[in-house]
Design goal:
The chain is an alpha/beta fold and 444 residues long. The protein has 16 helices and 19 strands. It has a 10-stranded mixed sheet, with helices on both faces. A 9-stranded mixed sheet has the order 3-2-4-5-1-6-7-8-9, sandwiched between helices. Strand 11, helix 12 and strand 12 form a beta-alpha-beta unit.
């Protein structure tokens, strides 16, 4: 994603734009690292500073591939902080002719270009591009100029990096303005600069049944010592270490967040409590109910199934009945079911309630009144009370005020993000590895 597109053989000239600190140099170095050979020509950064800011480049120096080394597979470093346009053109020319099909990064080209007239600048850029093409090179211009320039018109690809905020938390996204000869399915993509590396953030879901099967395999059949978990180590650090039995855990979901996107968290949470010889009482939303019923079917024949109860609209085995007219009856059945099972089990008790389901049946004021009673009862059992609700819920402010812990999940630019409203935390992105594992990556 993105890096592959920018490394396409047909993309000869790339322009990376953005304000200072947006991540332009990091993206350029990520590209040259993936490409494998080239030259970094800096008008403002010395070699020593480059290595200090980007430690992963140090290995190239130690291997002789970064400074003063011009083998085909190496990277040659040029420091042109006191350079003129002629110096830059000469450096490009010697590089293009001396290294086979190099990638040439000009950081930052506008430091030189702004000293030139428009006609001189255009002439210099044409010379650079012509020499690059003659040497089958790729050129990356780095610029802090927000306005349109001659470079914009010459570039095959234009990437603008933005450093923004989401409720006081840093958020980074790239804007793909142009990539010649290719469609742009997503104009904006979120990214992070964690570890001085450029990483596009993507969250790819497994199919729901595969997610549930994976959770059972990892937790119940994995042979590891069971522990309370969300299935994501970093989320456990944000949550599990600061909760105790009797805690209420509100999880607010943004308007475009799908419950299926949170299935990993809900499934691992549920199964880990069962693995600890505990019990689960769940009132799922209409959207997630099929998944939870599927989870029950996957547990068929296991002892854990007897400790897993779901609220249903009609009497069914393994379910407690939801009263569609009066919330007090439904909430009382939740508590009675939890207490009964807790008395028969040695492990923790987990209660999971979806507020959108309750609000679709009952008046919000009535739901809030009975939720307050549920919180008090759950504390006395004691049990972990997980409450998920939509950001559009009329009860958001009330629920947030009921707990010292509050999590929010939002979707932006195709990425899924989580942060702790209380206590305050930075923004984290859900990211999927090649093996299907999920982690939370800080947006830095």
């Amino acid at each position: 994603m993105l890096l592959t597109e920018l490394l396409d053989p047909n993309i000869k000239v790339t322009l990376i734009k953005g304000k200072p600190g947006a991540g332009k140099t990091t993206l350029a170095l990520e590209l040259i690292t993936s490409y494998g050979r080239g030259v970094y020509i800096s008008t403002r950064v010395s070699e020593a500073r480059l290595i200090h800011q980007f430690p992963h480049m140090r290995r190239m120096v130690e291997e002789g591939r970064l400074h003063g080394y011009a083998l085909e597979t190496g990277i040659l470093f040029h420091d042109h902080r006191m350079a003129s346009a002629d110096n830059i053109i000469e450096a490009v020319s010697s590089t293009a002719m001396g290294i086979k099909s190099p990638m040439i990064i000009l950081d930052s080209w506008d430091a030189i270009a702004k000293e030139l007239s428009e006609s001189e600048r255009l002439k210099a850029e044409r010379s650079i591009v012509a020499m690059a093409e003659a040497g089958d090179a790729k050129i990356i211009f780095i610029s802090e100029e927000p306005e349109l320039t001659t470079t914009d018109y010459m570039a095959d690809a234009i990437v603008v990096l933005h450093d923004e905020e989401v409720e006081g938390r840093r958020y980074r996204r790239l804007e793909l303005l142009k990539i010649r000869g290719m469609p742009i399915p997503s104009k904006y993509l979120p990214f992070t600069l964690i570890g001085a590396r450029f990483k596009v953030l993507a969250y790819d879901l497994l199919k729901p049944e595969h997610e549930l099967e994976r959770a059972i395999r990892e937790i119940l059949d994995g042979g590891k010592e069971p522990k309370l978990t969300t299935g994501i180590a970093q989320l456990d650090d944000l949550l599990i270490r600061i909760i105790s039995p009797g805690s209420m855990l509100p999880l607010e979901l943004g308007p475009t967040v799908q419950l299926s996107q949170m299935l990993r968290v809900f499934a691992h949470w549920t199964i880990s409590i069962l693995a600890l010889e505990g019990c689960i009482v769940m009132l799922p939303s209409m959207a997630s109910s099929p998944y939870m019923l599927k989870l029950r079917s996957l547990l068929e024949g296991r002892e854990e199934l007897s400790r897993f109860k779901i609220g249903c609209m009609k009497e069914e085995q393994g379910c407690f009945k939801v009263d569609p007219t009066y919330p007090g009856i439904t909430f009382r059945r939740i508590i009675e079911t939890a207490k009964t099972m807790k008395n028969r089990t040695a492990g923790p008790c987990g209660i999971h309630v979806s507020m959108d389901f309750l609000e679709s049946l009952y008046e919000p004021s009535s739901v809030l009144r009975h939720l307050t009673l549920l919180v008090a009862e759950a504390h006395g059992i004691p049990s972990y009370l997980l409450v998920d609700l939509r950001s559009s819920s009329k009860l958001v402010d009330h629920v947030e005020g009921m707990s010292p812990i509050y999590l929010r999940v939002v979707e932006r630019d195709g990425g899924l993000f989580l942060y702790r409203v209380k206590p305050f935390s930075q923004l984290y992105a859900f990211s999927t590895g090649d093996d299907g594992s999920v982690e939370l990556i800080p947006v830095m």
